[in-house]
Amino acid sequence: MNDFAHLLDRLAYEPRRNAKLRLLQDYFTHAPDPERGYALAAMTGGLTFREAKPAMIRGLVEARVDPVLFGLSHNYVGDLAETTALIWPAPVPSDGEPVIGPGHNNPPPHVPTLAEVVETLGTVKKADLPARIAAWLDALDETGRWALLKLITGALRVGVSARLAKTAIGALGGHEADAVEEVWHGLEPPYATLFAWVEGRGERPTTLNPAPFRPPMLSHPIDEEGDFEKLDPAAFSGEWKWDGIRVQLVGGRDAAGEQVARIYSRTGEDISGAFPDLAEAITFSGAIDGELLILRERRVQSFNVLQQRLNRKAVTPKLLEEFPAHVRAYDLMQADGEDLRPLPFTERRARLEAFVAALDHARIDLSPLVPFATWADLAAARADPAAVGAGEDADAIEGVMLKARDSVYLPGRPKGPWWKWKREPFRVDTVMMYAQRGHGKRSSFYSDYTFGVWRAREDGTPELVPVGKAYHGFTDAELQKLDRYVRNNTTKRFGPVREVSYGLDHGLVLEIAFEGVQRSTRHKSGVAMRFPRVARIRWDKPAAEADRIDALETILARGEREIAPGETLTETHG
Amino acid sequence: MSFSASDLLTLTREGLYCPLGGFHVDPTWPVPRALITHGHADHARAGHGRVMATGETLRIMAVRYGADFCASRQEAPLGEAIRIGDVTVRFAPAGHVLGSAQIAIEAQGVRVVVSGDYKRADDPTCLPFEVVPCDVFITEATFGLPVFRMPDTRDEVQKLLDSVALFPERAHIVGAYALGKAQRVMALLREAGYDRPIYLHGAMEKLTELYKQEGIPLGETPKVVATERAKLHGAIVLCPPSSIQDVWSRKFPDPVTAFASGWMRVRARARQKGVELPLCISDHSDWPDLCRTILETGAGEVWVTHGQEDALVHWCGTKGIKAKPLHLLGYGDDGESEPVAPPEEAVA
């Protein structure tokens, strides 16, 4: 447990991806089985056990430490697990002698392994849990106690994605992360067969999962300036890029002959439980790659509408009725036991069209192709999808996709076969209000900017109200200038954040590009942008000429009419 | 009413004052006569009239402020009773940094000990703390919460060496206060068997040189040459805490940002500073040592100064010891008031 804890401790402070990978590989190489397997499960969300409640932890510590001192400490540290880990007293046995002293035969306290912790939590009776946890806390060091408490309260956030952990595992045997993904869904903690395979001691684990996840193929953004002239329009097929969430619908029969239906997110997360209405449609044996969208009366709704369905804890009948989930199919990866990924795109597309037609299910349809002869044709389609067949669905289109007609389906993001060409973003002129230091290579620079737009106070005078935060879109040279600007115009400091000087007659205007606006309860302004980034730094523009909140409200209003069409229907068409 | 500790020491705008001796202790403003516990900038300021301190502290002040940092100076040999006005003072080692001392002030059978900053943990660069029995003990409370229990410094230094082994191509930039902490880290690295050069930011050079002159071996400690920074793969580089975040440190090969401080005990503190490798090495007493020291002095009354006073005052109460917070102004209660890098280093 202590080795795992020290790994988590290092990871928690390490911002660089490559350094995290190195730390993970170092751990997975040296830690024994099944310890490292449970560590992998902890980092990929693969553990299930009864979680300990914060009140129980607090009870344990207050029985051992003066509650006043604990309270002062908790206020200061600000985190229950960390405070408990630091303040937990060294155990004193009933006879008052130190646990291990010269001449004593006392065994040292038993330091639990991670495997022991996980296995115990899976079986322990609720009434026995506090004593177990107390004994573990007695035996572990500060870092071990911290990691244990984070683990058992379900708050283990260490800045490592499941993908990164799998990348580290793959690297042990010279495999790509995608190779690990391929076998992943048939495996269980502590993953002994997986480690045996990557270390060359065993066969590649065969996936027993009848509906496994397959890593999707992703595209690169096209550079309008240079890429088109190198590409032949005849070699590519065009398609809309739908603004939903990329998913896989996978169906198959298990050993008992029962149908298994799974919906996976782009990263391999099983989201079937959140979309039972769509899972019902998976009556086939195969794997469809597509975009999850909300359709109402056969019209695709915007991402704002889909947002209402996502991140909901409970899937209620009302939600299912108001936000019916559909999939618009892009590709067919597997059908009736046959892996179609080695086929060229045109052949897969023909198979997909036949497959979707035969399925004939209202929840699953085809993503239509966008015909074009020249790049100018495609540019026209991107600029006005409604005019080229998208009709009223145009608002849910975020650009066009280009797929090489001869491209095989490759996991990951290979450069060349697939391109995305997103529609023009929205733009707004804002004023920089706060700046925060970045991470990793940027950790010395003020690189994250909170910006605001003008709004009228109750008395009519204008004030700036923050509407978002951006941390990319500028070059390294521009970053150095921005950083200098922040340091020279600081008015207040709050830890790593600085407030810069702004007002009607001073301040720096940042032109922000973004993909949409949503209502937000977190921002004082009530709005939040999607994917904001700095498009241009307007050193020349006076702050007073930055945009007003109305510019965002207009975009927001359009989205909200879609979310609740009944209420504002007359307004829309009136 | 009989003579008491509050007749011996009072609080003025400049800090603690002894009316019977006519002197201040660690005043934060220029005064006619000052007794100085140690050389950190918030305790030892320039511009006083007469200054009394240990020889090491006087030499540290001369390095920092120039030879004319005060009108006249007097060295206080450790352990020697010195008469000033109607009181007797005696300096005793505090174990904080080189030359650091507690000051015992005594008159009419009442003894008050001003401990300045102190620690009980091993430190190869200064004399160990000496318990001075007293009636009133004035203690710092920088780490005055029971969450502050400092680990073995050897394990912390090993963390740094492990990281150098794991990332041999990256420079390890270690933030450390220029007086005391930096030299302690160097000495600990040498104890751990690290014999490669330890590179120094220009702001640390003079004080490190002084430590060596005072007889503390620190090995080879070259100053970083600005143009050579990009070549220091795998090097350990010490710099003032303010420099770990400035552009100076970014010119090293893919730097790992470390910070040697007791504050690294708390994660939020480390994260706030953008530290990737926190090294929990403190020159202040941790909670168990604060409590132990108060009991060992046998003091019936404790005055608690800079830091987390509330918890320590509460703890004294539970032990039947009279205690009160003493709200001294001007001391860095987070120990971060050390001077920053000289400008030519900061902008290079």
Please give a quick description of this structure.
With 574 residues, chain A is an alpha+beta fold. In chain A, 34% of the residues lie in helices and 22% in strands.
Q: What oligomeric arrangement do these chains adopt? A: heterodimer
Largest interface: A-B, 33 and 34 residues
Number of helices of chain A: 20
From the spread of the alpha carbons, the general shape of chain A counts as: globular
Q: Indicate the radius of gyration of chain A in whole angstroms.
A: 28 Å
Average of per-residue pLDDT values of chain B: 91
Percent strand of chain B: 15-25%
Distinct helical segment count of chain B: 10
The largest beta-sheet of chain B arranges its strands as 7-8-9-10-11-17-18
Cα radius of gyration of chain B in angstroms = 20 Å
The proportion of residues in beta strands of chain A is: 15-25%
Question: How does the helix and strand content of chain A classify structurally?
Answer: alpha+beta
Largest sheet of chain B: 7 strands, mixed
Structural class of chain B: alpha/beta
Report mean pLDDT of chain A, rounded to a whole number.
87
Shape descriptor of chain B? globular
Secondary structure: number of strands of chain A = 20
- Helix residue percentage of chain A: 25-40%
Q: Please give the alpha-carbon distance between the first and last residues of chain A.
A: 66 Å
The description of the largest β-sheet of chain A is: 7 strands, mixed
> Termini of chain B, distance in Å?
63 Å
